[in-house]
From TrEMBL:
Belongs to the glycosyl hydrolase 11 (cellulase G) family. This is Endo-1,4-beta-xylanase. It is an enzyme of class 3 (hydrolase). GO terms for biological process: xylan catabolic process. PANTHER family: ENDO-1,4-BETA-XYLANASE A-RELATED.
Length: 228
C-alpha cells in the first residue's frame, strides 16, 4: 500500500518460526479460523518506493492450513479498527517465503475476487430491506446521482454522504452495498449507524460488485444510517 507506505501479510501457514514475533494487537475470526494481528516497523529497508521506513501489518492464523478462502477486505477492516492506517492498494500476491524456514509449496489454484466481499455475485442479496442510495438524503458538495456504469450515487470527496433513517427491531444485521471505483485505486465507503462507524465497504475495480459486512451490531429502535 502507498499513502501511507505499508507492507501487509496474511499468513496461513509457516515453518519452524511463526512470524512476526512480538505482541499481538488483537484477533480477527474469519474464514473458519482465528488470526492474531500484529504491527511492526521496518527502518531504512527496501520497499516499492526504494529504501524507506514503513509499517508492516500482519494477520497470522493461530492454526496452520494449506488451502481455503482468504477474505482480504475483512482483514483490512480489522486492522483499521486497531488504528492501523490504510492506504491505497498497490499490489496483492500469493507468496511462499522461507525466512527462518525451508520447504516448498505446490499451488494448484489461485482465484482472486475483487470488490465482492468474498463472493462472486455482482448483485445484492434478494432478501431483507433494500434501500436505493438515490432516494437517500444527500450531503456534501459533490454527491450526485449517476447512471453509468450503474444507477446509483457518486461520492467524490471526504464530506460527501448519503443518509436515511431506519427502524430496527433486532440489534444485529448484515449490510450489503453495491459499488465500484472510478479508477485503479481502492475505493472505500464507511457505514455509520447512530453516529458510530460500524465498518467499511471496499471496491477495487470499475466493475460493480457487492461487498457485505456481516453481523453488524447496532442496537434497536430508530437509527440514522450514513454512507460516506
Amino acid at each position: 500500500m502507498v499513502d501511507p507506505l505499508v507492507e501487509f501479510y496474511i499468513v496461513d501457514s509457516w515453518g519452524s518460526w511463526r512470524p512476526p514475533g512480538g505482541t499481538s494487537k488483537g484477533t480477527i475470526t474469519v474464514d473458519g479460523g482465528t488470526y492474531n494481528i500484529y504491527e511492526t516497523t521496518r527502518v531504512n529497508q527496501p520497499s516499492i518506493k526504494g529504501i524507506a521506513t514503513f509499517k508492516q501489518y500482519w494477520s497470522v492464523r493461530t492454526s496452520k492450513r494449506t488451502s481455503g478462502t482468504i477474505s482480504v477486505s475483512q482483514h483490512f477492516n480489522a486492522w483499521q479498527s486497531k488504528g492501523m492506517q490504510m492506504g491505497k492498494m498497490n499490489e496483492v500476491s500469493l507468496t511462499v517465503e522461507g525466512y527462518q524456514s525451508s520447504g516448498s509449496a505446490i499451488v494448484t489454484s489461485n482465484t482472486l475476487t475483487i470488490g465482492a466481499g468474498g463472493g462472486t455475485d455482482p448483485t445484492p442479496p434478494s432478501t431483507g430491506t433494500k434501500k436505493e442510495c438515490e432516494s437517500m438524503t444527500k450531503g456534501g458538495q459533490y454527491t450526485s446521482n449517476i447512471s453509468s456504469s450503474f444507477s446509483g450515487v457518486a461520492l467524490y470527496a471526504n464530506n460527501d454522504s448519503v443518509k436515511y433513517t431506519q427502524y430496527f427491531e433486532s440489534g444485529t444485521h448484515n449490510f450489503s452495498l453495491r459499488g465500484a471505483s472510478n479508477n485503479s485505486n481502492m475505493a472505500r465507503v464507511d457505514l455509520k449507524i447512530g453516529g458510530q462507524t460500524k465498518g467499511t465497504f471496499y471496491f477495487g475495480g470499475s466493475n460493480p460488485a457487492v461487498y457485505t459486512l456481516n453481523n453488524v451490531s447496532h442496537g434497536t429502535g430508530i437509527k440514522r444510517l450514513s454512507l460516506l
